[in-house]
Amino acid sequence: MRNRTLSDLDRVVALGGGHGLGRVMSALSSLGSCLTGIVTTTDNGGSTGRIRRAEGGIAWGDMRNCLNQLITEPSVASAMFEYRFSGNGELAGHNLGNLMLRALDHLSVRPLEAINLVRSLLKVDAQLIPMSEQPVDLVALDHEGNHVYGEVNVDQLQHMPQELMLSPTVDATVEAIEAIAQAELILIGPGSFLTSLMPLLLLPDLSTALRRSTAPVIYIDNLGRELSVAAAALSLQDKLDLMEQNIGRKAISAVITGPRNKINTTSDRMIIQEPLEASDIPYRHDRALLRLALEHALQQMK
Fold it and tell me: Any idea which fold 6-42+129-300 has?
């Protein structure tokens, strides 16, 4: 791996949800079809939550967010996909992209087919795969032993839950497992730790694929403080430990983090600590700086 660059790799797989994964995917969009994103599908808030309650199906919000950030050619289709209804009517607050994905899901045999149709419409080369094609929710067992259902409620926990689980038990998308098996580099994060990253690792077949993979795994740490009180209390080492407990081995070989973040990891893990903040939104990663940090990590790997 040493002295290789990102453009030398044929299979890069990034895992996460929402803004974080979209940022990573857009930073590496020049990789085209060599880049695959595996997207969390447990969101139950906002427009996505309303659609799920009314229509069922998987959560589309994180997928839409990733697609939005990968659009490189503005068009009528992309403007429609990004459009959000205003006003006070029944459509107020709904994102047209979410509705389009749900409608295409109705017309398709599989949710993945709906995603591929939108990718074609928006001219997005990178591949995007939902973590599961079956509807699923995040559930926590809180510090008092109560079950807390749904991402929105889990994010409001004041204390770390005793356990996180998925309900019902679902399978990971076959293509997601295949992508991990073929990956030459795997990226996890950034994103809300409990609700964007951990749901992926709660899928037994996906965590098994990560355990079996021989590809180096890089964790991209958040720049801003977590909105979740429980997650904000976690140290970097805590997060690595929790992820690797679910994966079943010490899998994360490198961490990319900002200069302000505290590092308290063991010395045998590569740490790339560089300026990463976007000039307009400091808690978001600058795409060029993130790509540069990933290149630096890749060059130092054996």
Answer: Rossmann fold (3.40.50)
